[in-house]
Amino acid sequence: MPGETVLVIEDEQDIADLISFNLEREGYKVERASTGEDGLTRAKIILPQLVLLDLMLPGLNGLDVCRSLQSEPSTRNIPIIMLTARNEDADIVTGLEMGASDYITKPFSPRVLIARVRAVLRRTNGEEAEAVSEQKIGELVINREKRRILVAGSAVDLTQTEFDLLSHLARRPGWVLSRGQLIDALRDGRHVVTDRAIDVQVANLRKKLGGCGDYIETVRGVGYRMKESV
Length: 230
What we know:
Elements: E1 5-9, H1 13-25, E2 29-33, H2 36-46, E3 50-54, H3 62-71, E4 80-84, H4 89-98, E5 102-105, H5 110-127, E6 134-137, E7 140-143, E8 148-151, E9 154-156, H6 160-171, E10 177-178, H7 179-186, H8 195-209, E11 216-219, E12 223-226
Parallel strand pairs: 1-2, 1-3, 3-4, 4-5
Antiparallel strand pairs: 6-7, 7-8, 8-9, 10-12, 11-12
Helix pairs in contact: 2-3, 3-4, 6-8
């Protein structure tokens, strides 16, 4: 929400100016750092509500900053949106699996930037359906207590794994979850879960959900996310 502090760690001044201008216009307070080392230090002092983190930084790179922030008790709960000029799947997956909340590929529009910032802060502030027993997304209803799924009012029969996968994605609508994160969420010690198994489960889910199947979006080379709104 407006008034919250966003720390922008970006070494390209033009981009940092653009980000700062648009965030301040929306009412956010902006702090800036141009190196990874400075950004890490300022994050520990300021404790911002959100960090916008460029991956390609001089000295300590963005992934190292992300790793350090996630390892410190005082900063591990600060959400991070990664900024990357390279649409390289490995960097994005690594950042997400370290705990980053989202990523934006340069060049980006100010509208997209603001929308992503709002979405991440909204989820961080507890407006996500983390502990909700029944959740509705469009025509899809997920009842976790009864383990029941409704699509347009009709019950849909899912396997335990399909239900758990759908429920996990829906807990964080709008979040990109890598295949590795989904594997960790589904691993129960009895079954081997692989990247290919995740893809198969998602394909089966989409078929069973019918018209709601496209609520599950593929993020190329990274993983999947549930639409935030329909």
